[in-house]
Amino acid sequence: MRREESGFTLIELVVGMLLSVLLLWLLSSAFVVGGKAVDAAQSRYSAAHATFLLDAYLDADLQGAAPANVLIGTGGGSLAATWYAYDPATVSRVTYQAQYAEDASGHLLRQLTTAVNGVSQSTVTTLAWNVVPGGVQFAWGNAQHSLLNLSLTTQLGGVTTRQQLQIPLLAQQKGVPWP
Protein backbone atom coordinates (compact mmCIF):
# COMPACT_ATOMS: atom_id res chain seq x y z
CA MET A 1 0.00 0.00 0.00
CA ARG A 2 1.31 3.40 -1.02
CA ARG A 3 1.01 6.29 1.31
CA GLU A 4 0.45 9.80 -0.13
CA GLU A 5 2.14 12.60 1.66
CA SER A 6 0.98 16.16 1.41
CA GLY A 7 3.11 19.28 1.93
CA PHE A 8 6.08 21.01 0.37
CA THR A 9 9.59 19.87 -0.15
CA LEU A 10 12.47 21.76 1.42
CA ILE A 11 13.46 23.21 -1.95
CA GLU A 12 9.91 24.48 -2.58
CA LEU A 13 9.87 26.17 0.84
CA VAL A 14 13.23 27.87 0.26
CA VAL A 15 12.20 29.10 -3.21
CA GLY A 16 8.87 30.40 -1.83
CA MET A 17 10.62 32.26 0.99
CA LEU A 18 13.15 33.79 -1.41
CA LEU A 19 10.34 35.00 -3.67
CA SER A 20 8.49 36.46 -0.65
CA VAL A 21 11.63 38.30 0.53
CA LEU A 22 12.24 39.65 -2.99
CA LEU A 23 8.64 40.87 -3.24
CA LEU A 24 8.82 42.58 0.18
CA TRP A 25 12.13 44.22 -0.76
CA LEU A 26 10.61 45.57 -4.00
CA LEU A 27 7.55 46.91 -2.18
CA SER A 28 9.61 48.58 0.56
CA SER A 29 11.87 50.16 -2.08
CA ALA A 30 8.81 51.57 -3.82
CA PHE A 31 7.59 53.10 -0.55
CA VAL A 32 10.99 54.65 0.17
CA VAL A 33 11.21 56.17 -3.32
CA GLY A 34 7.61 57.37 -3.08
CA GLY A 35 8.29 58.95 0.32
CA LYS A 36 11.32 60.81 -1.04
CA ALA A 37 9.26 62.07 -3.98
CA VAL A 38 6.56 63.32 -1.59
CA ASP A 39 9.21 65.09 0.54
CA ALA A 40 10.70 66.75 -2.54
CA ALA A 41 7.27 67.86 -3.77
CA GLN A 42 6.38 69.15 -0.30
CA SER A 43 9.64 71.09 -0.12
CA ARG A 44 9.04 72.70 -3.52
CA TYR A 45 5.43 73.52 -2.63
CA SER A 46 6.46 74.98 0.73
CA ALA A 47 9.09 77.18 -0.93
CA ALA A 48 6.70 78.28 -3.69
CA HIS A 49 3.99 79.07 -1.12
CA ALA A 50 6.47 81.08 0.96
CA THR A 51 7.56 82.98 -2.14
CA PHE A 52 3.93 83.73 -3.00
CA LEU A 53 3.24 85.06 0.53
CA LEU A 54 6.46 87.06 0.57
CA ASP A 55 5.75 88.59 -2.80
CA ALA A 56 2.23 89.58 -1.76
CA TYR A 57 3.09 91.04 1.65
CA LEU A 58 6.49 92.47 0.86
CA ASP A 59 5.38 94.10 -2.39
CA ALA A 60 2.45 95.82 -0.66
CA ASP A 61 4.60 96.93 2.28
CA LEU A 62 7.39 98.26 0.08
CA GLN A 63 5.04 100.13 -2.22
CA GLY A 64 3.68 101.96 0.81
CA ALA A 65 7.12 103.03 1.98
CA ALA A 66 9.48 105.51 0.38
CA PRO A 67 12.89 103.93 -0.40
CA ALA A 68 14.49 106.07 2.33
CA ASN A 69 12.20 104.39 4.87
CA VAL A 70 13.25 100.84 3.96
CA LEU A 71 16.13 99.58 6.07
CA ILE A 72 18.02 96.33 5.63
CA GLY A 73 19.48 94.91 8.85
CA THR A 74 23.15 94.13 9.41
CA GLY A 75 24.10 91.06 7.39
CA GLY A 76 20.97 91.32 5.24
CA GLY A 77 18.90 88.95 7.40
CA SER A 78 16.13 91.40 8.26
CA LEU A 79 14.19 94.26 6.74
CA ALA A 80 12.04 97.07 8.15
CA ALA A 81 9.74 99.34 6.14
CA THR A 82 7.87 102.33 7.54
CA TRP A 83 5.13 104.36 5.88
CA TYR A 84 2.46 106.83 6.90
CA ALA A 85 -1.14 107.52 5.99
CA TYR A 86 -3.75 110.05 6.95
CA ASP A 87 -7.01 108.82 8.48
CA PRO A 88 -9.67 111.44 7.63
CA ALA A 89 -12.20 109.84 10.02
CA THR A 90 -10.06 110.51 13.09
CA VAL A 91 -7.93 113.30 11.58
CA SER A 92 -4.90 111.31 12.61
CA ARG A 93 -1.60 110.26 11.18
CA VAL A 94 -1.32 106.46 10.99
CA THR A 95 2.17 104.97 11.15
CA TYR A 96 2.81 101.51 9.76
CA GLN A 97 5.97 99.49 10.26
CA ALA A 98 6.53 96.07 8.75
CA GLN A 99 9.49 94.00 9.94
CA TYR A 100 10.69 90.82 8.30
CA ALA A 101 13.12 88.51 10.07
CA GLU A 102 13.99 84.87 10.61
CA ASP A 103 13.41 83.52 14.13
CA ALA A 104 15.41 80.87 16.00
CA SER A 105 12.91 78.14 15.02
CA GLY A 106 13.51 78.53 11.28
CA HIS A 107 10.44 80.63 10.50
CA LEU A 108 10.34 83.80 8.42
CA LEU A 109 8.04 86.22 10.25
CA ARG A 110 6.36 89.48 9.31
CA GLN A 111 5.41 91.77 12.17
CA LEU A 112 3.13 94.66 11.22
CA THR A 113 2.76 97.42 13.79
CA THR A 114 0.10 100.10 13.34
CA ALA A 115 0.18 103.22 15.52
CA VAL A 116 -2.60 105.83 15.76
CA ASN A 117 -2.60 108.60 18.38
CA GLY A 118 0.11 106.85 20.41
CA VAL A 119 -1.72 103.49 20.51
CA SER A 120 0.10 100.62 18.80
CA GLN A 121 -1.16 97.26 17.67
CA SER A 122 1.00 94.45 16.25
CA THR A 123 0.21 91.31 14.29
CA VAL A 124 2.70 88.57 13.44
CA THR A 125 2.35 86.41 10.34
CA THR A 126 4.48 83.35 9.57
CA LEU A 127 5.45 83.51 5.91
CA ALA A 128 7.85 80.58 5.61
CA TRP A 129 8.71 77.45 7.56
CA ASN A 130 11.82 75.27 7.44
CA VAL A 131 14.13 78.21 6.71
CA VAL A 132 17.77 77.15 6.95
CA PRO A 133 19.86 79.22 9.38
CA GLY A 134 20.83 82.41 7.57
CA GLY A 135 18.51 81.44 4.71
CA VAL A 136 16.86 84.88 4.48
CA GLN A 137 18.90 87.54 2.71
CA PHE A 138 17.75 91.02 1.69
CA ALA A 139 19.93 93.24 -0.52
CA TRP A 140 19.53 96.31 -2.70
CA GLY A 141 19.48 95.46 -6.39
CA ASN A 142 20.87 98.83 -7.49
CA ALA A 143 22.52 101.99 -6.15
CA GLN A 144 19.29 104.00 -6.27
CA HIS A 145 17.59 101.62 -3.80
CA SER A 146 14.69 101.21 -6.18
CA LEU A 147 15.04 97.41 -6.53
CA LEU A 148 15.08 94.96 -3.61
CA ASN A 149 16.47 91.44 -3.96
CA LEU A 150 15.40 88.67 -1.61
CA SER A 151 16.86 85.19 -1.36
CA LEU A 152 15.01 82.54 0.67
CA THR A 153 16.49 79.09 1.30
CA THR A 154 14.33 76.37 2.88
CA GLN A 155 14.96 72.72 3.60
CA LEU A 156 12.38 69.98 4.06
CA GLY A 157 13.00 66.24 4.02
CA GLY A 158 16.60 66.68 2.95
CA VAL A 159 15.60 68.76 -0.08
CA THR A 160 16.98 72.31 -0.15
CA THR A 161 15.11 74.89 -2.21
CA ARG A 162 16.28 78.42 -2.92
CA GLN A 163 13.87 81.08 -4.15
CA GLN A 164 14.80 84.53 -5.51
CA LEU A 165 12.57 87.60 -5.61
CA GLN A 166 13.15 91.04 -7.10
CA ILE A 167 10.73 93.75 -6.04
CA PRO A 168 10.81 97.24 -7.54
CA LEU A 169 10.11 100.16 -5.21
CA LEU A 170 8.15 103.21 -6.25
CA ALA A 171 10.12 106.43 -6.42
CA GLN A 172 7.58 108.22 -4.22
CA GLN A 173 5.54 107.01 -1.30
CA LYS A 174 1.96 106.28 -2.25
CA GLY A 175 -1.09 106.93 -0.14
CA VAL A 176 -2.74 110.03 1.25
CA PRO A 177 -0.15 112.61 2.41
CA TRP A 178 -0.29 114.24 5.81
CA PRO A 179 -2.05 117.61 5.43
Describe the structure.
It is a single chain. The chain has one domain. The protein is α+β, with helices and mostly antiparallel strands. The protein starts with 9 loop residues before the first helix and ends in an 11-residue tail after the last strand. Strand 3 and strand 4 form a beta hairpin. The protein contains one helix and eight strands; from the N terminus they run αββββββββ. Helix content is 31%, strand content 41%.
Tally of separate helices: 1
Average residue-wise pLDDT = 84
Instruction: Please outline the major beta sheet.
Output: 5 strands, antiparallel
Distance between the termini: 118 Å
Structural category is alpha+beta
Shape: elongated
Counted up, domains total: 1
Q: Tell me the Rg in angstroms.
A: 29 Å
Percent helix, as a range, is 25-40%
* SSE sequence, one letter per element: HEEEEEEEE
Poorly predicted parts? 173-179
How many β-strand runs?
Answer: 8
Order of strands in the sheet with most strands: 1-2-3-4-5
> What share of residues are in beta strands?
35-45%
Q: How are the SSEs ordered, and which strands pair?
A:
Layout: H1 10-64, E1 70-72, E2 78-87, E3 92-102, E4 108-116, E5 119-128, E6 131-140, E7 147-156, E8 159-168
Antiparallel strand pairs: 1-2, 2-3, 3-4, 4-5, 6-7, 7-8
